[in-house]
């Protein structure tokens, strides 16, 4: 079964809308990843989907204003946390060292991790080999010190920055090349799965999700549109 993660980012504006969205996206194999403030409300309505958080800190408690700890998330029945999203790497200056600490803290609390990696356009312009080298460095650094048994609780999302819908001058990726890079990542590390994120929508979902080397999708923009999102889910598993 493929995994479809709905990364709502900093949306929607009200808990009521979040609840409606969660109900419309509550399918087996789906991970709903709302902003922190809606976690409890979303959890209370989900019957089939799993719950994820968009970020996590590396300490459990202490003087860390604004941070959310792994144990707090665990106690809210969160199963997955995102680490390494390119938006946080780029706009908040999150480093591989910080990402590595988050991943280790989350795993030691029993949370599963969705680690995002992906190259900027300048790297990709040098060819697919450069992109693979870039991603290799990210993965090596981000998973440094993670035990083999814990790596099985990590899902890697390949998200080329230039293909994410909100990137400046976003460009569509070529599914065949996305699959080639996902296959490359699978050979590099033994993780639970490798999924793809980069403007996955109802129209292109089959082309990405139909490939054996792509274990699912992390969906941003289109996860805020229930009808489109349902079509993406049904491209992975026929909806009953
Ligand atoms: P997108 O976002 O589907 O809007 O491209 C994916 C992501 O950034 O997680």
UniProtKB/TrEMBL annotation:
Pathway: Carbohydrate biosynthesis; gluconeogenesis; Carbohydrate degradation; glycolysis; D-glyceraldehyde 3-phosphate from glycerone phosphate: step 1/1
Class of the enzyme per the UniProt entry, highest EC level: isomerase
Superkingdom, taxonomy of origin: Bacteria
Catalytic activity line of the entry: D-glyceraldehyde 3-phosphate = dihydroxyacetone phosphate
Enzyme Commission (EC) number: 5.3.1.1
Annotated signal peptide: none
Broad class of where this protein is predominantly found: cytoplasm
Matching InterPro entries: Aldolase_TIM, TIM_sf, Triosephosphate_isomerase
GO cellular component, one term: cytosol
Any GO molecular function: triose-phosphate isomerase activity
GO biological process: gluconeogenesis; glyceraldehyde-3-phosphate biosynthetic process; glycerol catabolic process; glycolytic process
Subcellular location: Cytoplasm
Keywords carried by this UniProt record: Cytoplasm, Gluconeogenesis, Glycolysis, Isomerase
Oligomer status and interactors: Homodimer.
Family: Belongs to the triosephosphate isomerase family.
Protein name, UniProt field: Triosephosphate isomerase
UniProt source species: Candidatus Colwellbacteria bacterium RIFCSPLOWO2_02_FULL_45_11
């Amino acid at each position: 079964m493929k995994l479809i993660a709905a990364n709502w980012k900093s949306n929607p504006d009200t808990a009521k809308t979040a609840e409606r969205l969660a109900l419309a996206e509550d399918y087996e194999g789906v991970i709903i990843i709302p902003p922190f403030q809606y976690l409890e409300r979303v959890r209370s309505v989900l019957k089939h989907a799993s719950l994820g958080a968009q970020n996590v800190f590396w300490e459990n408690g202490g003087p860390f204003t604004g941070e959310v700890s792994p144990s707090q998330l665990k106690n809210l029945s969160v199963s997955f946390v995102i680490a390494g999203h390119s938006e946080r790497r780029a706009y908040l200056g999150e480093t591989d060292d910080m990402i590595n600490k988050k991943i280790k803290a989350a795993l030691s609390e029993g949370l599963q991790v969705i680690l995002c990696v992906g190259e900027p356009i300048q790297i990709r312009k040098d060819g697919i080999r450069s992109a693979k080298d870039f991603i290799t460095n990210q993965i090596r650094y981000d998973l440094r010190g993670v035990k083999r048994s814990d790596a099985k609780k990590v899902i890697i999302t390949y998200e080329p920055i230039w293909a994410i819908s909100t990137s400046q001058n976003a460009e569509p990726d070529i599914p065949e090349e996305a699959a080639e890079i996902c296959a490359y990542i699978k050979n590099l590390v033994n993780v639970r799965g490798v999924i793809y994120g980069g403007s996955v929508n109802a129209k292109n979902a089959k082309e990405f999700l139909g490939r054996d080397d792509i274990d699912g999708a992390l969906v941003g923009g289109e996860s805020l549109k229930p009808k489109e999102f349902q079509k993406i889910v049904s491209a992975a598993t026929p909806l009953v």
